[in-house]
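Bit of a strange request maybe. I'm writing a small parser for structure token strings and I need a real example to test against, not something I typed by hand. Could someone generate the tokens for this chain?
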Amino acid sequence: MDVRKVTESLLLAGIKRKLAEWGVVLEVSVSVEIPRQEEHGDFSTNAAMQLARPLGKKPREVAGELTEAIRREDDRGWIASLSVAGPGFINIVLSNDAWREVVAISLRKGDRFGSSDQGKGQKVLIEFVSANPTGPLHVGHGRGAAVGDALARILSFEGYEVATEYYVNDVGNQMDNLGLSLYSRYLQECGVDAQLPEDGYRGDYLVELAREFHGEVGDRYKATPPTLALPVFRKVACERILNGIRKDLEDFRVRFDRWFREETLHRAGEVMGAIEKLRSRGLLYESEGAVFFKSEAHGDEKDRVLVRADGRTTYFAADIAYHRHKFLKGYARVIDLWGADHHGYAPRLMAAMRGLGEDELRLEILLVQFVTLLREGKAIQMSTRSGEFTTLREVLDEVGPDAARFFYLLRSFHSHLDFDLTLAKTQSSENPVYYIQYVHARICSIFREAAARQTPLSDHPSLSSLTLPDELALMKKVARFPDVVSEAAHLREPHRIPFYLLELSREFHAFYQNHRFLGETPERTQGRLALAKAVKTVVGIGLSLIGVSAPERM
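Reply from user aminoacidic:
Good idea to test on real output. This should exercise your parser:
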């Protein structure tokens, strides 16, 4: 149950009743907001202010009459009070029974509490990470992985049919350079004084890979000419680096439904198919032997090359074909997560989709901002012994997947992230993920103690004893969860989940310090155990939506 939606439905019914009494026919919708100041109620709406002009009345007058109609519509006692404020806002305070009802529903629904069918029948494809298979994943890729995976989990929870995909760029000069770089390192293992290509890859990971491969095949390729060795070493480098990427992602609790290779687009003729589609729409022209797409006419800053003068297609041409492939699969939404450094690429891809005649609104491009690693509050160099970058694997080895995922998701991906490694390893309330997980573990401990005292939670506990302000505050926070999940899905903002869990955890820890769950009257004990179980349920679901474990003991 979503408290906001139930309240909006009740208000809408009351407003329609009043409009009918007035004999007025108007299309009307109602939305409520949570006031910034608690004394203004649980919700507030400006519906009266919106209706005042078409009705030819003053907003406060309309608000006063609407409140009476809403009260008459509320036959379940959902609303405790309605009041008119300011220029015509209607402030709403829900009854204690309303909050108790939501807690009771959370107990019945269990691990489905907060889910909905808002995405029912809608297929969504989320492509994320998609790092080139030329080296290990770095800390920036880790943030994209955490955001993309959490978004997939949240959308699935909201009823969407979600597929996840990793696009493997395994074609082009970069792969040739990778293959030749590995070949040079292999020759060095054979005792040959070989030099890396000028634009080759210099990471130590290739030295290790070459040593491993030489240990398997010996000097078999020592005398092989580079042109013949290239296909072998390109494939070895690509596949083994990809295997490492897969392993890092699996250890990060990220699994993809598909690993889609660029090479399959070329082999199936889809790249040339997309180019010919644009040609048939009169959107290509030739200049100095190259084929250009008229992307400037569709919102890009300039026209883009699709086929070079030497006949090779560009990366952009393959990307057009890839996204056309996605659209042809019938997804209602195609979501791409890119690093912020790709912001200039979005307009040209949108231009290509418009050029193909596709509905560009089906394509969403989310740009994930950069990460700075901190240790003891100070920025550290994003480099390893290879002189390149800090890898996701190094972060996982240092802080573990729970802390890594949580810290990546604690801030909006639209904002730069400072990731404090020292804090992420701290086992105290200062560490937000530890603080939240401890709520779950603490409640599990309460229930173990309840079982030991032979006072377990009954199947249908009474919640009528929950009357204290602290109990009401905790019930309200639990009841907000479905709304938070809905917003996280609709706005594509997974950070709303950990932010909410922190707020809920503060409420619970404060309650725990001031009140007992066991040893009260039987009715109060049952009520508080029910409330504790509701909190535990929400924390468990919330952590699972962001891919973080919910331990029973800490």
